[in-house]
Design goal:
2 copies of one chain form a homodimer.
Chain A lengths: L36 H15 L2 H4 L5 E6 L2 E10 L5 E2 L2 E2 H14 L4 E12 L4 H18 L2 E10 L7 E11 L15 E4 L5 H9 L17 H10 L3 E5 L5 H13 L2 E5 L7 H10 L13 E4 L4 H9 L8 E7 L6 E4 L5 E3 L13
Parallel strand pairs in A: 5-6, 10-13
Antiparallel strand pairs in A: 1-2, 2-7, 3-4, 5-7, 8-11, 8-12, 9-11, 10-12, 13-14
Helix pairs in contact in A: 3-4, 6-9
């Protein structure tokens, strides 16, 4: 069979040649996958209008549906394209399981069943695939979920980058459970379960882009057991969200917009590991925008903040949990950071792409 | 940020350099995505041992789970890497919806909720993405399903091929419903809902690989309404499966193995459109191994065969339904074709890759 034309020889994706190239603004750029403003614009422009329905429009980590009157399901999906496939503290397999488990947990659901769709590049070593799948199984076992359906596609050499994994997940929850990004209320406490930026910097270090040998491990972990313990401790949890792509700042912005509230955080309350801080200074990154894969933002009624902190700190993945701020009436849809020198800085959503292929 | 090393400079997928290359047999080849023997071997070797559980091991189009005593769910996933993205009769968007809808329908489930995970290549025209998403929505509407969760990742130019789409799906079914590949019984009738090979040949023609201007359209369609009508007509349907990658021959082999029965089909009963037959002769393909995206194999108790044929023919996607053979005791796990000259030919599973990136 003839090889397809080289990319340079075609202009459209349909095999046809388009004599007038489209302007760059009409093309996908890396920032469309950033978790920041460009990605939100793409979703608002290209995905929501045609696919619109109330579940998708809610814009949460998982869609919640009611297949029968007494069963409420949360359904989520995540594709994983992290490079390299292995990095300190984890790999694409562990990431693929934890990403979807955490999206379901963030809806207050109990993750139950996962699917795994593999896109493999011709030439991938089977040994690499097998290590990744073994890592998926270990993470699934830790989370207590089962992979119940799978799919494998292979594309020609150069048409993928080793392997990509999509996982989708189904979780069950108590009917009427409503923990989601639109539930934050003025006065609520804002809790963060540990240090930020570890995952993003660990992946960068695996790429050899730090120029130094920093001992930074990704925090990638399944947070569902920790979330379950927290839900046991308090019925006043309003929002849970894992600050992945786009980092803590983007996640707080999403919540502020969905809930139409302001969020004020204290700069000196946000934990950043010293090695992550140094790496960020070296590279000119702000850790507030660097991805995490094992942290959760918890927004809870103020009277239950201590109960939640206690429950979190009893879990291995929540030992570093701290109160970082509070929800306020105004400015609606904005996030402010009270800096160490006492001034307020607006934390905006990330525009464009900070670190491509971090998850 | 530094560009990653060129593929030639690295040997392993981990960013490390491996001085001794692995033998070719230990690497992924295109045939691992074929739907045939190599893919089954890969699943048996690399996916099943670590991820093993009864639902996955059943090897059906969707996993069936029971989240609460009175709700039975079918869960399925499919990644789509078809090239080109648009072809006569369909596109990657319609394919992505129909593929998962049909996998759920093939389990006797009512498809309800879908997720969509996009992997976009940097440089993709937004206009292309929007046409694809519009096509997904049209297919979802036709099928009566909702996309309730989505995800977008972007990879660098040359690390994907326009776009790949994963869809996962959740369907509901009557508890106790057991239509699956292991239910075929000797004496059962084998029905095919129409002509074979249309999808594969339509995609090849869109690649310009036929060398002729054949007017062949893909059959890609959501079959769930047709399946529902058939289930209404008969309670004796034992197996449903859509003969996608690997074609009719591979699908019949899967069923023969799962049910531990023989299957005998009549060569002259299997409908092939004249244009598909000519294209296959030209290219040296056997239409029995060419992919379909809008057909179903139905295995039903013989006394209900006519009722099922009638129900199928009343649906626009089943007008060409015909009886093509029967299930027999022996040879267990094998498929035989009675040829037009009266001899029997063993229809084996496809080994290697006939047509890469057909779905």
């Amino acid at each position: 069979m003839a090889e397809r034309e080289k990319p340079e020889e075609r202009v459209t994706m349909e095999g046809a040649v388009c004599p007038v190239p489209l302007p760059h603004s009409e093309r996908i750029v890396l920032g469309h996958g950033s978790g920041g403003k460009l990605m939100h614009d793409l979703i608002a422009r290209s995905f929501l209008p045609p696919l619109d329905n109330p579940v998708l429009r809610a814009g949460n980590d998982a869609g919640v549906v009611l297949p029968t009157p007494d069963t409420q399901l949360a359904i989520s999906t995540d594709s994983h394209v992290v490079w390299p496939l292995f990095f300190p503290g984890g790999d694409i397999g562990r990431l693929a399981i934890c990403g979807t488990v955490n999206d379901l947990a963030a809806m207050g659901a109990t993750p139950r069943y996962l699917t795994a769709g593999f896109i493999l590049e011709e030439g991938l070593e089977l040994e690499v695939l097998e290590r990744v799948v073994a890592s998926m199984q270990a993470a699934a076992e830790e989370a207590g979920v089962e992979v119940v359906a799978g799919d494998t596609k292979v594309v020609q050499r150069g048409k993928a980058d080793g392997l990509y994994i999509n996982t989708a997940g189904v979780g069950t929850q108590t009917p009427g459970m409503a923990i989601n990004g639109a539930q934050a209320q003025p006065g609520d406490a804002v809790i963060l379960t540990g240090t930020i930026g570890d995952h993003g910097i660990a992946v960068l270090s695996a790429r050899g882009e730090l120029g130094i040998q920093a001992q930074i491990e990704s925090d990638v972990a399944p947070l569902n057991h920790m979330v379950a313990a927290m839900l046991e401790a308090s019925e006043q949890i309003h929002v849970l969200r894992d600050p992945t792509r786009g980092g803590l700042a983007s996640t707080l912005n999403e919540i502020a917009k969905q809930s139409q509230v302001g969020i004020v955080v204290q700069e000196d309350a946000i934990p950043v590991a010293a090695a992550v801080q140094s790496a960020c200074e070296l590279l000119g990154f702000d850790p507030l925008y660097v991805a995490n894969e094992g942290k959760m933002v918890v927004i809870v009624a103020p009277q239950d903040a201590n109960k939640v902190l206690e429950a979190l700190r009893a879990d291995r993945y929540g030992e570093g949990a701290v109160l970082i701020g509070e929800v306020v009436e105004e400015p609606k849809g904005r996030v402010l950071m009270k800096t160490v020198i006492g001034s307020h800085r607006v934390l905006d959503v990330l525009s464009g792409e900070l670190l491509p292929r971090i998850c």
